[in-house]
Specification:
There is one protein chain. By secondary structure, this protein is α+β, with helices and mostly antiparallel strands. It has 2 domains: about 150 residues, no CATH class; about 250 residues, Major capsid protein gp5 fold (2-Layer Sandwich). Helix content is about 40%, strand content about 20%. The protein has a 7-stranded mixed beta sheet with strand order 5-13-10-6-9-8-7. A 4-stranded mixed beta sheet has the order 1-11-12-4. A two-stranded antiparallel ribbon has the order 2-3. Helix 1 runs antiparallel to helix 2, helix 3 packs antiparallel against helix 5 and helix 5 packs across helix 6. It is flat and about 115 Å long. It starts with a helix and ends with a strand. The relative contact order is 0.12.
Length: about 425
C-alpha cells in the first residue's frame, strides 16, 4: 500500500469526522428547537456517514496486510527450510539466498493482500509464481503420493458464536425458596398526618391498608439424546459440554422472560406491567435528550440514587449522539477514571432483549430494579441422566430443568421511555 494513498485516506477520514461532529451538532440543535431535524441536515449526515464507511474496506486491507506481515515474519525460518527441500535434487541454496527469496516472497504476499494481484511488479509476481511452481514438486493430494505423510491437526476447541444474554439478575433482587411460590406483603395505602390545636379533637386517621403479592415459580427444560458411542469416543467431555450449553440457554431464556414474559407459564416481564409509568420521547420514532431527561427525573429521588439505565446495544449508539440543552452529551465515558460509562450521570446495563428504537416501542428503562423486581429461584439447575428410556437406540437421555419466577413488586421504582410524541 502506497504511503501517499494511506496518508490521503487518513486526511479524508479526519475531515469527514470533523464534518460529522459539526453536522450532528446542527441536527441536535434543530431537534431541540423544533422537535425534529431538517431533512437537509439528516441527508447531509447520512452522506457523511456513508463517506466514513467507504474507508472501512481500506482499514480492513491494512489489518490483513499487517497480519500477513506478522505471520510471514514468524514463519520465515520454516519457509527457509521448505525452500531447501524444494530443490528437486539440486544443491541447497546458501543462507543469504534463502533469506533474500523469503523476503521477496513476504513483500509480494503483503502487497498482493493490500492492493490485489494486479498491483504486483514483475519481480514480485515472479517470486510468487516461483514458490508455487516449486510446491508442485510436493503433493498432498492424492493421499498415496504423500498426503498420508502430512496429517491434519485436530484442535480441541469448539468454535461458538456468541449467545447474547440479558444480565437482569445483576440488577434485580433474587430470593431462594423451597416452595412453589412466595408471598410478599405490601403496603397499598397509608394515612395522612393531621394538624391539631392543643385541646382540639383528634379523630382516627384512616387509609393504612396492606395487600399481598404472590410470585409463582415456572419450569423450563432442555432434553438432549446422546449416543453411548459418542460419550465413549468423543475427544471432548460431551456430557460437560451439553451441561454448559443448557446453562447458557437457560440464562438466555430467563433473561428474555424477565423483560417481556407474559406471566403465563413463565415470569412476568416488567415491559408488560401496565402499572409502570411511561414517558414519551417527544418524537414519533426517535429518542430525544429531553425525553431521556424526563425519564431520569420521572422517579423519586430515593429510587434514582440506585437506579440504572437498561437498553440494547443499538439504542446505546443512538443515545451517544444526544446532547442536553446546555450542549453537553448525555453519554459520558468513565472507564479512564475507573468508573462505568454513564448516561446523565447514571450507569447503564446493556440488555440484548430490550426492543430497538421505533414508533410506540419502549427501548429504554430506568429505575431501581432491586426494589422494583424480584426473582424467585426454586430449582437453579437439575440434570437427570437417563440411560434407560433410549437404551434400545443406544443413547443416553439428558434432561435439564430449572424452576424460576419473577415479577414487578414496586412499579413506582421503574419508568419506561415510550417512543411517541
Amino acid at each position: 500500500m502506497e504511503l501517499n494513498e494511506l496518508k490521503g485516506a487518513v486526511d479524508a477520514v479526519g475531515s469527514a469526522f470533523e464534518a460529522f461532529k459539526a453536522t450532528n451538532d446542527a441536527r441536535l440543535a434543530e431537534i431541540e428547537k423544533k422537535g425534529s431535524a431538517d431533512v437537509v441536515t439528516r441527508d447531509k449526515l447520512d452522506r457523511i456517514e456513508t463517506s466514513l464507511s467507504k474507508y472501512e474496506s481500506l482499514n480492513q486491507k491494512l489489518v490483513q496486510a499487517e497480519l500477513a506481515a506478522k505471520n510471514a515474519s514468524e514463519t520465515a525460518a520454516d519457509l527457509a527450510a521448505k525452500l531447501n527441500r524444494m530443490g528437486s535434487g539440486k544443491a541447497a541454496p546458501e543462507a543469504d539466498e534463502v533469506k533474500a527469496r523469503a523476503n521477496d516472497w513476504m513483500r509480494a504476499v503483503v502487497r498482493s493482500i493490500a492492493r490485489g494481484d494486479g498491483a504486483l511488479s514483475e519481480s514480485e509476481r515472479k517470486s510468487l509464481d516461483g514458490v508455487a511452481a516449486e510446491m508442485k514438486s510436493l503433493s498432498l493430494s492424492p493421499d498415496t503420493l504423500g498426503g498420508y505423510l502430512a496429517p491434519t491437526e485436530y484442535v480441541r476447541e469448539i468454535i461458538k458464536g456468541v449467545v447474547e444474554v440479558t444480565p437482569f439478575r445483576a440488577v434485580a433482587r433474587t430470593r431462594q425458596t423451597t416452595q412453589k411460590a412466595i408471598q410478599l406483603p405490601k403496603r397499598t395505602g397509608t394515612f395522612s398526618a393531621q394538624w391539631v390545636q392543643e385541646q382540639g379533637t383528634r379523630s382516627e386517621t384512616t387509609g393504612l391498608t396492606y395487600g399481598m403479592d404472590e410470585i409463582p415459580t415456572h419450569e423450563m427444560y432442555a432434553l438432549v439424546d446422546i449416543t453411548n458411542q459418542m460419550l465413549e469416543d468423543a475427544a471432548f467431555n460431551v456430557e460437560a459440554e451439553v451441561r454448559a450449553e443448557a446453562t447458557e440457554q437457560f440464562a438466555k431464556a430467563e433473561g428474555a422472560a424477565f423483560l417481556s414474559g407474559s406471566g403465563v407459564g413463565r415470569p412476568f416481564g416488567f415491559l408488560n406491567n401496565a402499572s409502570i409509568a411511561t414517558v414519551n420521547s417527544g418524537a414519533a420514532a426517535a429518542l430525544t435528550a429531553d425525553g431521556l431527561l424526563s425519564v431520569y427525573y420521572g422517579i423519586k429521588t430515593d429510587y434514582a440514587r440506585a437506579a440504572v439505565w437498561m437498553m440494547n446495544r443499538s439504542t446505546i449508539g443512538q443515545i451517544r449522539r444526544l446532547k442536553d440543552g446546555d450542549g453537553e452529551y448525555l453519554w459520558a465515558p468513565g472507564l479512564a477514571g475507573g468508573v462505568p460509562n454513564t448516561i446523565n450521570g447514571a450507569p447503564y446495563v446493556e440488555a440484548a432483549d430490550m426492543p430497538d428504537v421505533g414508533a410506540s416501542a419502549k427501548p429504554v428503562a430506568f429505575g431501581d430494579f432491586r426494589r422494583g423486581y424480584v426473582i424467585v429461584d426454586r430449582i437453579a439447575m437439575e440434570m437427570l441422566r437417563d440411560p434407560y428410556t433410549q437404551a434400545t437406540s443406544g443413547a443416553v437421555r439428558m434432561i435439564f430443568r430449572r424452576r424460576v419466577g419473577g415479577q414487578v413488586v414496586l412499579p413506582e421504582a421503574i419508568v419506561l421511555q415510550n417512543v411517541a410524541l
